[in-house]
Design goal:
By secondary structure, the protein is mainly α. It has a domain of 83 residues. The protein is built from five helices and no strands.
Length: 121
């Protein structure tokens, strides 16, 4: 998924997201020990596991996210709600953020740009 203006940040963001889910950070729930297990059923590909998590890079992105939360709490809240609460209906996510649900995509993109800018500092 190529995102304009993020220049390779998408892979780092996905790595950080997976690291947060695995460690129970920013999600409000503990990660499952069984989360890495894949059923050996015949319709799964040969190697269904995602690439290994790059922990040092994930820690750097997490530090940038934490500093973003201090400097621009609204941007951090947008990332937190949309990334770590995907089970919520878009209308409810938008209500918690105080925007219209059709503006979620644009707000999320701007928040990720702010995080990428914090990371490049």
């Amino acid at each position: 998924m190529a995102e304009n203006g993020l220049n390779g940040f998408g892979a780092r963001f996905e790595n950080w997201r997976r690291w947060c889910f695995a460690n129970g950070r920013h999600v409000g729930r503990a990660g499952s020990a069984e989360g890495g297990w894949r059923s050996p059923q015949h319709w799964y590909p040969e190697d269904p596991r995602p690439p290994a998590i790059d922990v040092p890079d994930a820690v750097l992105v997490n530090q940038a996210f934490t500093s973003l939360a201090l400097l621009a709490p609204r941007q951090a809240r947008i990332i937190k709600i949309i990334t770590f609460r995907p089970y919520l209906r878009p209308q409810y996510q938008a209500q918690k953020l105080g925007i219209h649900y059709l503006q979620l995509g644009e707000a999320y993109h701007r928040a990720k740009l702010a995080l990428a800018a914090r990371l490049s500092d």
